[in-house]
């Protein structure tokens, strides 16, 4: 009896050792230890043996069973490891194939990117952001900004006027036009907010002009700071901070006198060129950005003309007591300078191949 | 305005190169467009020559072989084609190696077998005039070999200036010289009109009246020059005019142009013997009246145009161009010199109307000072006497006289510092203003300043004087400071919402575009819309003659452009204003956002080579990203939102019961009109300014207790929408229902019955104060099933 058990155990262990797959092993478990297997049957027969044999045979059978179970477990682990190894090998792919892309983010238009960048600089300098109507009255666009009644910008050759529009509100009386600059908001903002005021006004403006550097619609950012003690030196400091934020920390600016109807004194502001060394490129050719002058014109500015403040005295602005500066810059121009764009019209072609590079 | 430097240096000559001077002017407020060179660039090789012999070329009738002494005792043979070359003449010679004004370098040459060692020059070859019928005979008797540049002006740098409208005084070279003086400190010569050989007082021999009135013609002056000999101008005068951009014509005309270029004040010379009745009258033209101008053209006038007439009718257009009838000719012997002040804007309009942009008109259009007229008369008188042999009749006819008395302005030293942010001592301020022609006197607070007539309209206030000081004495080293303020900058809530909206759309894979505000007149018709549009009175083109009432047009335009460029998948949005005639208001126009997707909904990849096309559900996805992202609760109302859109694949987007936008596919015929399609073109649009700002979210407890999930598959009649099902479920389940989402739709008429379909819904139940029991949820489920059966004829699918 005990010999039969030993034989069963050894035969079982040999088969377990030879098993190669977990399915084979499972069949062995059933064959060796399942309900119909020989060893359990032998164990069930122990009760019928003579009492003196029961002890040794039972022990031998239990030992054999334990040995087989242990061997199954060991083989199971061995086979699982081998099978995992095989599966991992078969998982091999060509990892150089293109990705399964997540939805690719789109791009904000370059004009939006640049506008936000400028807005954020001025927010940091304590400015609020105002917006105003693009359809404007002659009063806000020209009269209140101290434009001579015969100023050429008022001509139909320069400015878009609207055809008769019944039902325009009284405040917009007279001829309506598409604003030619964001400056009308200087007056509107001062009518809405008593001094002191510090705002920028980004927005779309229109002029009858179309070539490589002009489109009939473009975007400006107006700036206005009025209080009792704002000086031309403050204008310079503010625009210097702006220029360094946008064009790099090493920039310098210079103010050149100019003429604008609604500022006095008026200046044009140049930023030192960020593209060249003393007007020359690495190959010693003339820098195309500053044309070799080392300075690039970026905007117009000046001290708010007392005549402009004269239009907002009702809201607490006193031309004798209040003073301040204003400036206006073209977003397109800043974008073109900063990103090396030669033709303004590219910004309005909206070719995705162009837009998505930024 | 062209300013030849050798001319300028007669009045003010700083020791600066042309570029340095240009920089100095640019930094003090005179815009320099560019620096040019006129005439000979390097004077080497240009010398005076004496023609010793001039004989006919043996083999060419038109050529002469000359022997010319050029100072070294070795006469050169030069072949010359000019008919007037002759022995004994003093001429200008360019030797081989010289560079001509047009850039060519002269070489030794052989002309029909005869060697030619250089060239005898005509005026045109030296850019002194257009004259090229003969060689130039030099004035006086300079010795052969004298460098030509010492005898006549043969080359000069030219500053091309852009004069701002507030500085008409700089439209004359002497005015520019004054700026140069103020900018550089170089001394300024006395005004070239300071000595007047003529006289004031009544003028006999002509009668002049001004019927147009002083508004249109503030001053009219005239002098008469008798015994005028018309002929060519001297070389120096021609050379200056050419360098300044004007063609020499005759001494009389050249004098009028020269005087204008020096003083900035245009003048006109009439042949007095051709002025009918010897009288002139200034008046408004009659409608349709015509006048033949100097250029030979008949011009039709209107009553806003001012003309000058004699006894026979109109002779010239005031301030713009003279008439042909009384033009100075070779036979003229008596000149009536007219120098008048005109109404600048009126002249500007006239010049525009007639498309006549002469040097005179552009100056008169700026509105000159009446005092300038006598400057011009004085200088002209001297030149007529010197260059035409004329005698000046006594007296000056003067209608109108000087302008208003010069303004006196008090300038406070403290005010300068307060405005500019830097101190300027009184002495420095006085120095600057004196240099500019102002008169200053010290006062306790600063200066009492008298404004010169030419600055009368530009400088009227203290701040205008401060500008002069700023540009000449301060800007160069102005300190940079920041305003002392305690403001805080921030975006407004509305501005944050717009930025967030753009970020959400871009984050969802849409690229932003920026279209035109302008639209073609038929754009709305092409979009099947009847909205009236704002119309421009003076568009640049018919295609841009309206303002858009929707972003649909510009976004479709951009999509069409990119499709034409080969883009298969297009996913774009625009955020911008639309313009509606009924919304003209002080506040800014409404800003809309419109997204468009067409082509594959996702970029095809090797794993998904053919993603489904973006259709109305992509549009709905955009609306979800945008509005859910903004935290705005919204609902969708099926139905055609606009005639532009697909009638059955369209819905209105509502917030709080108000329409704020739409999501849809574009009507296939509209898409085809933009060369898009045949696949769907999905669009979603939201009026961002119609959205109330989202409220601040208050926290809810979603984590302390688990939720219970329940799936239901409901078989419904086709006529019942998913939204209706969810509404019934929501009402039946009550507040414990946290969410209900459709996760499967299944159609199979064989199994479900004709006209019925199956919708599977995943329900999440939760309570914030306890864990729900299965029994509670089972009750809800029962109520839902009953309600669906009762209200929608829906059955639960096992
Ligand atoms: Zn550069």
Main features:
heterodimer, A: 358 residues, alpha+beta, BirA Bifunctional Protein, domain 2, seven-stranded mixed β-sheet, two-stranded antiparallel ribbon, 12 helices, 40% helix, B: 798 residues, Phenylalanyl-tRNA Synthetase, Chain B, domain 1, OB fold (Dihydrolipoamide Acetyltransferase, E2P), Phenylalanyl-tRNA Synthetase, Chain B, domain 3, 6 domains, five-stranded antiparallel β-sheet, 19 helices, 37 strands, elongated, binds zinc ion
CATH class of the largest domain in chain A: Alpha Beta
CATH architecture term of the largest domain in chain A: 2-Layer Sandwich
Which structural class do you get from the secondary structure elements of chain A? alpha+beta
The count of DSSP E runs of length 2 or more, i.e. the number of strands of chain B, is 37
**What is the fourth-level CATH superfamily of the largest domain in chain A?**
Bira Bifunctional Protein, Domain 2
Question: Would you state the CATH class of the largest domain in chain B?
Answer: Alpha Beta
Can you count the helices of chain A?
A: 12
Biggest β-sheet strands, sense, barrel of chain A: 7 strands, mixed
The total count of helices of chain B amounts to 19
The span between the termini of chain A is: 87 Å
Low-confidence spans of chain B: none
CATH topology of the largest domain in chain A: BirA Bifunctional Protein, domain 2
CATH architecture of the largest domain in chain B: 2-Layer Sandwich
Biggest beta sheet attributes of chain B: 7 strands, mixed
């Amino acid at each position: 009896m005990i010999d039969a058990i030993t034989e069963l155990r050894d035969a079982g262990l040999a088969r377990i050792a030879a098993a190669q797959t977990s399915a084979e092993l499972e069949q062995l478990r059933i064959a060796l230890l399942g309900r119909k297997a020989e060893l359990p049957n032998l164990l069930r027969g122990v009760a019928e043996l003579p009492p003196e044999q029961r002890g040794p045979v039972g022990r031998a059978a239990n030992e054999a069973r334990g040995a087989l179970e242990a061997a199954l477990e060991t083989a199971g682990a061995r086979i699982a490891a081998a099978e995992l190894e095989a599966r991992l090998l078969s998982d091999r792919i060509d990892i150089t194939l293109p990705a399964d892309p997540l939805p690719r983010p789109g791009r904000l238009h370059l004009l939006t990117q640049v506008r936000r960048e400028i807005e954020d600089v001025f927010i940091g300098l304590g400015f609020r952001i105002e917006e105003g109507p693009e359809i404007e009255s002659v009063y806000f666009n020209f009269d209140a900004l101290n434009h001579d009644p015969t100023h050429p910008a008022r001509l139909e050759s320069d400015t878009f006027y609207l055809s008769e529009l019944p039902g325009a509100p009284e405040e917009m009386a007279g001829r309506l036009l598409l604003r030619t600059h964001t400056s009308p908001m200087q007056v509107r903002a001062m009518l809405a907010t008593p001094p002191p005021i510090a705002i920028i006004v980004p927005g779309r403006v229109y002029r009858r002009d179309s070539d490589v550097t002009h489109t009939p619609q473009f975007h400006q950012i107006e700036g206005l700071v009025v209080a009792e003690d704002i000086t031309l030196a403050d204008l310079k400091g503010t625009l210097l901070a702006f220029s360094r934020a946008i064009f790099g920390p090493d920039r310098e600016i210079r103010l050149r006198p100019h003429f604008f109807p609604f500022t006095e004194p008026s200046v044009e502001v140049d930023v030192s060129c960020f593209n060249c060394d003393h007007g020359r490129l690495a190959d010693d050719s003339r820098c195309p950005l500053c044309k070799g002058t080392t300075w690039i014109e970026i905007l117009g500015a000046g001290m708010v003309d007392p005549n402009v403040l004269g239009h907002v005295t009702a809201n607490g602005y006193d031309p004798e007591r209040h003073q301040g500066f204003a400036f206006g810059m073209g977003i397109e121009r800043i974008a073109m300078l900063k990103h090396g764009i030669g033709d303004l019209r590219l910004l309005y072609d909206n070719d995705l191949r162009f837009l998505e590079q930024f | 305005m062209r300013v030849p430097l050798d001319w300028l240096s007669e009045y003010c000559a700083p020791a600066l190169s042309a570029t340095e001077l240009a920089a100095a002017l640019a930094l003090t407020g005179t815009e320099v467009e560019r620096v040019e060179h006129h005439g000979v660039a390097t004077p080497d090789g240009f010398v005076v020559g004496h023609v010793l012999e001039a004989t006919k070329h043996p083999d060419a009738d038109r050529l002469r072989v000359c022997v010319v002494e050029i100072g070294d005792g070795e006469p050169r043979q030069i072949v010359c084609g000019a008919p007037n070359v002759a022995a004994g003449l003093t001429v200008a010679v360019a030797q081989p190696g010289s560079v001509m004004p047009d850039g060519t370098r002269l070489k030794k040459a052989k002309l029909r077998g005869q060697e030619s060692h250089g060239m005898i020059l005509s005026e045109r070859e030296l850019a002194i005039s257009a004259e090229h019928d003969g060689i130039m005979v030099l004035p006086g008797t300079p010795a052969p070999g004298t460098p030509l540049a010492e005898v006549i002006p043969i080359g000069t740098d030219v500053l091309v200036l852009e004069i701002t409208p507030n500085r008409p005084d700089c439209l004359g070279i002497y005015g520019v010289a004054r700026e140069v003086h103020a900018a550089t400190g170089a001394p300024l010569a006395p005004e070239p009109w300071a000595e007047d050989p003529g006289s004031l007082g009544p003028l006999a021999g002509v009668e002049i009246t001004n019927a147009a009135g002083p508004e249109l013609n503030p001053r009219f002056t005239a002098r008469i020059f008798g015994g005028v000999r018309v002929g060519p101008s001297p070389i120096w005068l021609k050379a200056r005019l050419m360098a300044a951009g004007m063609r020499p014509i005759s001494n009389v005309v050249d004098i009028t142009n020269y005087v204008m270029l020096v003083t900035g004040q245009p003048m006109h010379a009439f042949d007095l013997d051709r002025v009918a009745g010897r009288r002139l009258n200034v008046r408004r033209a009659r409608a349709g009246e015509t006048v033949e101008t100097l250029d030979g053209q008949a011009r039709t006038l209107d009553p806003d145009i001012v003309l000058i007439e004699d006894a026979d009718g109109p002779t010239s257009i005031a301030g713009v161009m003279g008439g042909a009838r009384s033009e100075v000719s070779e036979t003229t012997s008596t000149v009536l010199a007219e120098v008048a002040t005109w109404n600048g804007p009126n002249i500007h309009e006239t010049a525009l109307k007639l498309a006549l942009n002469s040097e005179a008109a552009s100056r008169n259009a700026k509105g000159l000072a009446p005092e300038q007229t006598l400057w011009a008369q004085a200088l002209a008188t001297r030149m007529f006497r010197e260059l035409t042999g004329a005698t000046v009749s006594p007296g000056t006819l003067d209608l109108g006289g000087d302008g208003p008395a010069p303004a006196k302005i008090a300038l406070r030293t403290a005010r300068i510092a307060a405005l500019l942010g830097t101190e300027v001592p009184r002495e420095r301020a006085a120095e600057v203003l004196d240099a500019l022609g102002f008169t200053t006197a010290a006062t306790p607070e600063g200066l009492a300043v008298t404004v010169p007539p030419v600055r009368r309209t530009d400088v009227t206030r203290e701040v205008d004087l401060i500008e002069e000081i700023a540009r000449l004495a301060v800007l160069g080293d102005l300190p940079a400071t920041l305003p002392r303020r305690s403001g805080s900058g921030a975006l407004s809530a509305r501005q944050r919402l717009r930025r967030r909206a753009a970020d959400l759309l871009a984050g969802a894979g849409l690229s932003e575009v920026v279209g035109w505000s302008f639209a073609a007149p038929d754009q709305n018709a092409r979009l099947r819309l009847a909205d009236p549009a704002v119309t421009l009175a003076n568009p640049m083109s018919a295609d841009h003659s309206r303002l858009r009432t929707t972003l649909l047009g510009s976004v479709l335009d951009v999509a069409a452009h990119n499709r034409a460029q080969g883009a298969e998948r297009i996913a774009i949005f625009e955020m911008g204003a639309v313009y509606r005639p009924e919304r003209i208001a002080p506040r800014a126009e409404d800003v809309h956002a419109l997204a468009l997707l067409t082509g594959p909904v996702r970029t095809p990849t090797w794993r998904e080579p053919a993603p489904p096309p973006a259709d109305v559900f992509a549009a709905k996805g955009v609306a979800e990203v945008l509005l859910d992202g903004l935290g705005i609760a919204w609902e969708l109302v099926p139905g055609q939102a606009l005639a532009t859109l697909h009638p059955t694949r369209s819905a209105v987007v509502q917030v709080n019961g108000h329409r704020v936008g739409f999501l849809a596919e574009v009507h296939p015929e509209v898409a085809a009109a933009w060369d898009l399609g045949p696949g769907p073109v999905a669009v979603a649009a939201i009026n961002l300014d119609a959205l109330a700002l989202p409220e601040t979210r208050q926290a809810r407890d979603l984590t302390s207790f688990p939720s219970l999930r329940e799936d239901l598959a409901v078989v419904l009649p086709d006529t019942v929408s998913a939204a209706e099902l969810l509404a019934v479920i929501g009402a039946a389940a009550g507040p414990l229902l946290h969410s209900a989402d459709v996760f499967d739709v299944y159609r199979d008429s064989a199994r479900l019955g004709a006209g019925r379909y199956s919708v599977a819904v995943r329900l999440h139940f939760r309570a914030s104060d306890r864990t729900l029991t299965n029994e509670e949820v089972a009750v809800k489920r029962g109520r839902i099933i009953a309600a669906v059966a009762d209200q929608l004829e829906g059955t639960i699918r096992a």
